[in-house]
């Protein structure tokens, strides 16, 4: 079968351009549709990622809060432990005898010419109630006293009297009595008492 095109060249040209226009419009429409589709996909992915990011941020915040809570609890436990240790130390220090301070105070009572050979300190068992420097009896009030024996040498009686006066005027010692048995030539031996409250750290 033979087809005969009877269209004029102008009509043929118009048909050609019409086909080209339809092809361009179709391709342009397809491109627009694809771009819209990709924009939609991009928006969807962006929204999804934002949601996931928010979830991760919330999880991270929760983890940080839990971590901070654990750290705070750990610090609290350490503080409780340290406070307990400090309380133990303070309890140990309570009612401890301050012999160093007592002996330091005693050293100021000893004249330079007096030589102390020995000081012995022990619990005072039984005996009369102690007396102060004025000779008045002191109530013990369940306070333990300690017996102190001081042995030394004094070459002169003047120095020995000064030492005795210092002992009698001292706030450390009580129940000091002058007894001839205290002396043996240059040697002397004093027996006194110390109240626990004077040597205990509270």
Textual characterization of the structure:
The structure is a single chain. The chain is α+β, with helices and mostly antiparallel strands. It has helices at residues 9-93, 99-107, 157-169, and strands spanning 96-97, 115-123, 145-153, 173-174, 183-184, 187-195, 200-201. The strands form 2 sheets. Strands 2, 3, 4, 5 and 6 form a 5-stranded antiparallel beta sheet that branches. Strands 1-7 form a two-stranded antiparallel ribbon. The longest helix is centred in the first third of the chain and has 85 residues, at 9-93. It is rod-shaped. The model is unreliable at 127-133 and 135-142 (pLDDT under 50).
Form type:
rod-shaped
User: Would you tell me which CATH topology of the largest domain applies?
Assistant: Alpha-Beta Plaits
Distance between the termini: 131 Å
List SSEs in N-to-C order: HEHEEHEEEE
The number of helical segments is 3
- Whole-number radius of gyration? 53 Å
The CATH level-2 architecture of the largest domain is identified as 2-Layer Sandwich
- Low-confidence stretches are 127-133, 135-142
Q: What is the average per-residue confidence, as pLDDT, rounded to a whole number?
A: 76
> Which percent band covers the strand fraction?
15-25%
Largest sheet: 5 strands, antiparallel
Supply the helix-strand structural class: alpha+beta
Helical percentage: 40-55%
């Amino acid at each position: 079968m033979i087809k005969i095109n009877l269209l004029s060249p102008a009509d043929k040209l118009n048909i050609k351009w019409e086909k080209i226009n339809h092809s361009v419009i179709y391709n342009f429409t397809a491109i627009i549709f694809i771009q819209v589709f990709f924009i939609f996909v991009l928006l969807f992915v962006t929204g999804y990622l934002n949601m996931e990011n928010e979830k991760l941020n919330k999880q991270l915040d929760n983890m940080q809060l839990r971590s901070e809570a654990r750290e705070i609890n750990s610090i609290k436990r350490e503080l409780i432990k340290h406070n307990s240790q400090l309380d133990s130390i303070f309890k140990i220090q309570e009612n401890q005898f301050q012999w160093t301070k007592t002996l330091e105070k005693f050293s100021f009572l000893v004249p330079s010419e007096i030589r102390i050979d020995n000081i012995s300190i022990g619990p005072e068992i039984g005996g009369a109630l102690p007396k102060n420097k004025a000779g008045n009896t002191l109530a013990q009030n369940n306070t333990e006293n300690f017996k102190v024996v001081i042995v030394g040498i004094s070459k002169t009686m003047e120095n020995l009297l000064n030492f005795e006066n210092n002992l009698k005027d001292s706030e450390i010692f009580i129940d000091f009595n002058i007894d001839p048995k205290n002396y043996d030539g240059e040697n002397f031996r004093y027996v006194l008492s110390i109240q626990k409250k004077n040597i205990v750290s509270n």
